[in-house]
Design goal:
homodimer; 227 residues; alpha+beta; Jelly Rolls; Arc Repressor Mutant, subunit A; 2 domains; 4-stranded antiparallel β-sheet; 8 helices; elongated
């Protein structure tokens, strides 16, 4: 890992919770692994062994229902992490993870604790912070799934993406539409209908390319349909 | 609080994580409060101050969306707790809580730590355990909302309730159908349709009374629709 990348990561929510020395120590022992698109990173129900921290690319967290249907829980990018609690306590992964683009994931062994002072205590606090952060994210997602329509969830997602992209009016979706549909809790055909519903407010899309003609119109739509 | 109740509670997931002495100490300082149906227990966005542990009755955890629509996140009963992380760290409640039946809730102040040995460390581990437990529950809920139909979620709920009731074929729903609809992520009219869909497999309901004529038929339906 380059010193630059380590620096970037240290600003992420996990390492921000740790003293710099413990941070450096963990990173120095960590194993970065590269995955091709579609590669399995870990499987629900198996020993987690490590905390996984995404360095680049996109990762899909998902669960398989009893019927074998896939429920996308989250899409993760650089500085996002998962399996924190399981890695700390020696438990199993609560979801499977798959690379949806070529990606690099840093594997951190939380049980091989070094001689850093009060390392266990600091790690526990950091893991609690992350668990609380994930819990809040999942609660927000349950809220969205229960009270918003698919078109409203898509609108929210596009506004967030627009802001993350620094206000570009044309951008590429970070992953395929079938994954976006799963993430937003829709069938692919419902996602197509949701995109069609946004056409009158200036959103058009072709494959992964999306353009937003008038952001204020899209925001107005978001507010009007929420009201 | 009666010694019996304290004993029952000590078997719940929170206190199981704590040494008996710390358990007793926390319980001795805790404040039980009674709430009438519809009373507010705490509000999303306000200082949490305490960990809340349900002693009896039913509590609804919910969020209000931007449009003022209510998303029920969970329904809680005796031995269930919430606001653990916020109480430990002095943060805000991530959801509102309301009594949906008359209920008693024990308020535990995690910051007024007694002289018990390594109290903070034990509390942190217990809170992490609970956060992880809630996270898993929310992930399971996201999974259900994304891959199951309303009728499938209702079927799963009825099977769980049947088992919790010790196999009774006729029982009362613990709260009103409008709350059940919110919990399962449906509009009340969709819940009525879901109940109607279960009629051919022997489920009938009138107000809060539900009867299941043939449990094996309902289980078969659950499996057939999941396949």
């Amino acid at each position: 890992m380059t010193p630059h990348l380590a620096q970037v990561l240290a600003k992420g929510p996990l390492f921000q919770q740790l003293p710099p020395k413990l941070c450096q120590c963990l990173i120095s022992k960590a194993q970065p692994r590269s995955y091709g698109r579609g590669a399995v990173i870990c499987l629900q129900g198996e020993q987690a062994r490590t905390l996984k921290l995404v360095l680049d690319g996109w990762v899909k967290l998902y669960r398989l229902s009893g019927s074998g249907e896939e429920a996308v829980l989250a899409t993760l990018q650089a500085a996002d992490s998962f399996d924190e609690v399981a890695a700390l306590q020696g438990g199993i992964s609560q979801a499977s993870a798959e690379a949806v683009s070529p990606c690099t994931v840093l594997h951190l062994d939380l049980q091989a604790i070094c001689a850093c002072e009060r390392a266990k205590e600091h790690l526990q606090a950091a893991v609690l912070h992350m668990a609380s952060h994930h819990l809040d994210g999942m609660m927000a997602q349950v809220e969205g799934l229960k009270v918003q329509t698919g078109a409203q969830r898509l609108t929210r997602y596009l506004i967030d993406l627009y802001e993350a992209e620094g206000g570009a009016i044309e951008f590429e979706l970070p992953f395929e539409k079938v994954i976006l549909a799963g993430k937003l809790g829709m069938k692919p055909e419902s996602l197509s209908r949701a995109f069609a519903r946004l056409k009158p407010v200036g959103v058009s899309s072709s494959h992964r390319l999306v353009s937003i003609r008038d952001m204020s119109k899209l925001r107005a739509y978001a507010e009007a349909t929420a009201a």
